[in-house]
Amino acid sequence: MGPGGTITVIGEAMLELSRGDGDGWNLRYGGDVINTAVHLARSGDTVRLASALGCDPMSADLRAQWEAEGVDTRLVLAAADRLPGLYAIETDAVGERTFHYWRSEAAARQMFALPESESMIAQAAQSDLLYFSLITLAILPDEGREALLALCQRVRAQGGRVAFDGNYRARLWSDPAVARHWRDRAIALADIGLPTLADEVEMGEADDARDAALRWGAGLGREIIVKLGGEGCWVGEQLVAPPRLIDVIDSSGAGDAFNAGYLHARLAGAAPDDAALSGHRLAGWNIGRRGAIPARDAEAPY
Predict the structure, then answer these.
(1) Tens digits of residue pLDDT in 186-234
(2) pLDDT of residue 89
(3) Helix 142-157 with 176-187: angle, nearest 10 deg
(4) Catalytic residue positions, numbered
(5) Do 16 and 30 meet the contact criterion of CB atoms below 8 Å apart?
(6) What are phi and psi of 232, to 5 degrees?
(7) Beta bridge partners of residue 238, listed in sequence order
């Protein structure tokens, strides 16, 4: 897979209410896969979002905003009786976040159970890279999870690759063991794994970056990058530190930005350690501004 390939990201994209220290509420959008999709589109990649929204004005506005960023929304299905999910995020003086969610009846949960779902699956199977996260699996019923994993198999059978981010949110799962079960099934179908050490520790399965990489199948033909927050990331058998320290304004979407920077660089032919530096640069720009997807500015490393 090289430059010019089609990337399909699949998951939930939501309305975002955000408030920093002393600010009022601001309405934006966010969600781990759409964050990554927008960064990839801004970087010049061909990106499609596969998901579901409602038929309401807010859903129409979300589509319009993503399309304005260059994200193809033709695989975003319409669930007439549902609305998009919503989350509120508060950021303290040091950039740490608190989340509140309204997503139990969100349209995205039905993305594999709508009349147009089979067509969406068939088109998504024609991807050079399919990207999703553990949150994507978390919001789906078991039937949807099985359908997503079957889609991974179809993509790989047709010569595409699969990238999986182990984004763990405990509140979305009934038990960590259930999350580990679906995570492990996704890992088995992934060519590129993007776990975060803090998530792996919270799930009760990793001691350090090397341990997490081995548990995700490093050395078994998979490309595994373990994200370590401000320390950097573990690539192969080495730590790749960020090129410079950043004053954190808002840590929202840092991992999603890193994933986009990394994947874009790899698609362009960069070696994994160089791609990790690209991921750090984009994540660093992201956390120096408010919102999961800050407005593009002159310093944006696209």
Answers:
(1) 999 999 999 999 999 999 888 899 999 999 999 888 999 999 999 999 9
(2) 74
(3) 20
(4) 256
(5) yes
(6) 120, -135
(7) 235
